[in-house]
Amino acid sequence: MFFEAHGTETAVGDPVEANSIGAAFGRGHSCDEPLYVGAVKSNIGHLEGASGLARLLKTILVLEKGVIPPNTNFESLNPKIDAERLNLKFSTDSHPWPHDGLRRASVNYFGFGGTNCHVILDDAYNYLRIHRQTRNHSTTKVVPPRHSLSKSSLGPPIPLDDASLEPKKLTTPKLLIWSAADRHGTARLVKAYNDYFQNLRSRHSDVEPFLDSLGYTLAERRTSLLWRSFVVINSTTTLLGLEKQTSKSKRASSGRNLGFIFTGQGAQWPEMDELKKPKELSRINEPEFSQSLCRAIQVALVDLLESFAIRPSVVVGHSLGEIAAA
C-alpha cells in the first residue's frame, strides 16, 4: 500500500519512475484503494550515498507507526504522470494504513552509476505473527484513526518571537554560509531561511545545537557554488533580521596562482610544532632532529593544505627544503 520512490526531481526521471511503479504494482490497486507514493527527498534533499538509507529508515517508520506521511513541499504533479490511470496517489496529508493485517512497502533507490535497488519490507509484528515467532519490535498493532492525523492536530506554527526562543546571546558565534549559482540566488536562500526562522516551532527551544548543525550542513554538506554570502549569528535576535545581517553576495575567485617556498635548516625555533616545550629542554636545533623535522613538517604542511584544496602553481626550496618542494 506504500511505495517509497527515488524521486529524481527531474522532468524526465519522475514520469519514468512513476509509470514503472504503476505498471508493476498499479494493477493490484484501484482509484478507491490507490498505491500511496512518497519520497523523503522532499524533506531532506539529496544525500548522495546515504539517500538509500534515509528511504529505508523512513519506510520502516511508516510500517511501525501505521501512518503514511505527506510529501513535503509537494505543489503540483508532473503532467506526464497520469496518477489516476496508474492507481497512484501522491498525498499531501497524513493517512492511516488503509487496512488491518500485514503492512508491506517497497523502496526504490537508483545509484549514480546505474545501480538500481528495490527492497520490499514487511512490518515486524505481522511478519513475526505469520511465521509464529516472538521477537522484540516497535510496530503499532492498531492503526491510528484518521481524525487523529488531521493538520489541525499539529497546531499552527509558533512565531519565533512568541516561542520559547527568548532573545539571548549565544555561547559562541555561529557562521552560516550561503552558496548559489547566480548573483541573486543567495538572497533567495536567505529569504527562505528567514521565513523559516520566523515560523520556527518551539521544538528548537535549545537553539544553539540546532544552529551548530545547520552551520555544519551549510558549510560541509552543500556544494560550494559560484556566488556566496554569509552571516555571523551572535544571538537569537539575529535570526529575526537575517536579510539585514547577511553580507552582500560576492563571486568566488576562479583561482589564484600560489607559490610555496620551502626553507632549509636554520629556520626552526623552540616550541615549533611542540607543546609548551621550553627553550632549555628543546632539542629542535640538534642536527639529528632538526634535519628530519625540516623535511617532515613541510611535507605534512603541504598535505594539510592539499586537504583544503590549496595547491601551489610553483615551488622553490633551499637546502633541505628542496626535498619537501620535490
From TrEMBL:
Domain Ketosynthase family 3 (KS3) span(s) in chain numbering: 1-123
GO molecular function: fatty acid synthase activity
Biological process according to GO: fatty acid biosynthetic process; secondary metabolite biosynthetic process
A Pfam family the protein falls into: KAsynt_C_assoc
Top-level taxon of origin: Eukaryota
Residue spans crossing the bilayer: none
Region described as Disordered: 137-165
InterPro entries: Ac_transferase_dom_sf, Acyl_transferase_dom, Acyl_Trfase/lysoPLipase, Ketoacyl_synth_C, PKS_assoc, PKS_Beta-ketoAc_synthase_dom, PKS_NRPS_Biosynth_Enz, Thiolase-like
Matches recorded under PANTHER family: ASPERFURANONE POLYKETIDE SYNTHASE AFOG-RELATED, FATTY ACID SYNTHASE
Protein name, as recorded: Ketosynthase family 3 (KS3) domain-containing protein
